Structure prediction request, 310 residues.
Amino acid sequence: MAEEKKGFFKRLVSGLTKTRDNIVSGIDSIFHGFSNIDDDFYEELEEILIMGDLGVHATMDIIEDLKKKVRENHIKEPVECKQFLIESIKEQMDVGEAAYEFEHQKSVVLVIGVNGVGKTTTIGKLAGKLRDQNKKVVLAAADTFRAAAGEQLKEWAHRADADLIGGQEGSDPASVVYDAVAAAKSRKADVLLVDTAGRLHNKKNLMEELRKINRVLEREYPDAYRETLIVLDGTTGQNALSQAREFKDVTDISGVVLTKMDGTAKGGIAVAIQAELGIPVKYIGVGETIDDLQKFNSDDFVNALFLTEE
Ligand SMILES: Nc1nc2c(ncn2[C@@H]2O[C@H](COP(=O)(O)OP(=O)(O)O)[C@@H](O)[C@H]2O)c(=O)[nH]1
Ligand SMILES: [Mg+2]
Prediction:
């Protein structure tokens, strides 16, 4: 377990190289470049955090908190701020322990998010993880908007030894979910994973579609544990944050999956999401294969960013 954790940390460190170059090298240069902790120092720091996609509100809160810590601890040297900054970021990201209850109960996981963010891929990866835990998994192809979406999910179902319930192109997503619930019940599935289309350009349609799906799940599968994961593309920075807000307006969200964290410089968005939305990032996607999904821990994330392994 300790070995596994170490391996995870190493991969996280290398995956966050560009984000680190983007944020931490700038921070280090001001910590070493400034001789006083003054307004200019805080302004520079603020700019780096905002440019690093930590989000405006989270940045303001981090700076305020840092100022307080500097005062209380009578800090005079900029370099001495670093540990306090790291603590402030961790505190802003605190949303309590992320729960993975759906892995241990009979459950249904609704996966939402706009087109192209990585929903189908994430479902495939999750199905693979669950198979490795000897779970029986059923996939619902409720993205009936594009024919290719069903085909793509079929390939993932094959890779992950999961059953797939689909519908014809253009058919009602809620009826696919209805069929999938029936299949999950009769096959005694542990987890039902539901892929959706998520067309955000029409908020009213999206709301209606999700409401119908939720209604089917509540009515037909009331004893299943519910999880709703929003998938966000980590390379899109602040856009990801605004997408999450839009979806949060129309449905309850229990967790975030941040994809494409391999090689992006915008990984700071993980801070903004937890600090500003209060929703835990539960997984990060770090590549396109079935093994490229990792559970997310914000303390590890900040440590990996600042290379301060504990
Ligand atoms: N590099 C990388 N690519 C990803 C990741 N997750 C998904 N993708 C790619 O993103 C593209 C869109 O993914 P898809 O699952 O079809 O998105 P969907 O439209 O939301 O279902 C595909 O080419 C995936 O291979 C990730 O974590 N890292
Ligand atoms: Mg898809």
Notes: Residues 119-120, 143, 149, 195 surround magnesium ion (ligand 2) (CB under 6 Å).
